[in-house]
Amino acid sequence: MNKNVRKLTDGAMVVAIVGVCLLIDRQLAGVLSSLFSFLMPLPMVFYATKYGMKDSVVVLVAMVLLAVVLGTPMLIFLVASASITGFIYGGCVKKRLETRKTILITMAVSIVSMLLSTFVLASILGYNFMEEVNMMEETMTMVMEQTNMVAPMMDLHQMMLSVFFVSTILIGVLEGYIVHIISRLMLKRLRIYVEPIEPIGTYLPPKWSGYVGIAGFFLYMYVIRYPQEVASVQIALQAISFACMLYLAMYGMVALLIFLTSRNPKHRGLNTILAIFMLFTLLPFISILGYLYITTDVHRQLLERGNYAKRD
């Protein structure tokens, strides 16, 4: 088949798939888009990976126009953001970018789309996220009164607002990672080349990121102990510092998993469960471990002791 004809056929096919999904979602009152939004980037991932970003622009525009005809304003934004995510992910795979960079770019796009949909578009469409924050605050206050818990040192409203903001970012990170995993499985089944995944234990981030992370860690402790008078400043500082702490905690988890696997290589599932449990119960300790993992010789010593990279 002529290459241009095949390109047009594949483009029409992926647009038709999106159109059918939009019609089904319309009949189901939005259930499909609510439960399976992470699958919406896949058609665009396929086309952008196969033909590149330049030839995929027309298909991207066609998908958005189709959503304008068949969908609601919220669904239009959902299709547009999902298509852009698939467009960028497929373009990265087509250019054979490193898997680590592809994942980070996809997560960044998902975070931006999640923040826009939660705080900007939702407000335009009449959704008031402050009501959600107030409801969370009332629930927390009621629980504290019933259990005789000590009130936190910072303003409870500001804390709930920060939790809401950070949870939105974490959802964006998770959605971006899920898109990567599912897209990778799909492309492998279609026998399209994807860059191999390197074990995360073999990768060591730059030391300056560890110093920035530990600065954010102490900043988080400070803003919790001494809340700022301006609410927007408090929220911004808490969100940034908490993100730094989570960054350190991620590499602390890596260090902990390498150590547990070197000690007990036959029970990796149990090691993972134990590491996750420690993450939720000992977050400050895991964050400090991540700082040591990034800035000291802990990374090399763990790899030499456990031979982790060779096993993976």
Poorly predicted regions are 308-312
Average residue pLDDT: 80
The level of helicity is over 70%
Beta-strand proportion: under 5%
Largest sheet at a glance? none
Helix/strand structural class: mainly alpha
Terminal CA distance reads 41 Å
The whole-angstrom Rg is 22 Å
Q: Describe the global form.
A: globular
Number of contiguous helices: 13
The tally of beta strands, per DSSP, is 0
| Element-by-element helix/strand order | HHHHHHHHHHHHH
Notable traits:
312 residues, mainly alpha, 13 helices, globular, disordered C terminus
Explain how this protein is built.
There is one protein chain. With 312 residues, this protein is an all-alpha fold. It is 81% helix and 0% strand. The chain is built from 13 helices and no strands. It has helices at 3-27, 31-35, 42-70, 73-94, 99-124, 129-147, 156-189, 207-225, 231-263, 268-281, 283-295, 298-306, 308-311. The two termini are 41 Å apart. The model is unreliable at 308-312 (pLDDT under 50).
Brief synopsis:
81% of the residues lie in helices and 0% in strands.
